[in-house]
Design brief:
Keywords: Signal. This protein is mainly β and 102 residues long. The chain has one domain. It is built from one helix and three strands, in the order αβββ. The protein starts with a helix and ends in an 8-residue tail after the last strand.
């Protein structure tokens, strides 16, 4: 093979397990959101609504009733902050995890 290091890195990436971020009791919110970098285009501000810590409540759609069902007894967390010295927005989703579901 012409590029053995590339092949080894690719194999390690494919074989590596995905690590889920789970939320539950004791989960700490981010709180440090950073700030946009100086000189960013005005259009960058249209994504500012993503910045912050959010607790997400789940509801299932009841097609027969044509309405949302009752809230589920578990929540997830969504976190948005500025990254790369304020040049991008980092969006993180923390799944409730099956251990926190009834």
């Amino acid at each position: 093979m012409k590029y053995p290091i590339t092949a080894a890195l690719l194999a390690a990436t494919i074989a590596a397990p995905a690590v889920a971020q789970v939320t539950g009791p004791g989960t700490v919110m981010c709180g440090d959101y950073g700030a946009p970098a100086d000189g960013m285009p005005e259009e960058f501000s249209q994504f500012a609504f993503l910045i912050g810590d959010y607790v997400v409540q789940f509801r299932n759609w009841d097609a027969a009733a044509g309405d949302w069902g009752e809230p589920q007894p578990f929540t997830a967390r969504w976190n948005g902050r500025y990254g790369l010295s304020g040049r991008t927005i980092i969006d993180e989703w923390f799944d409730p995890g099956f251990g926190y579901r009834p």
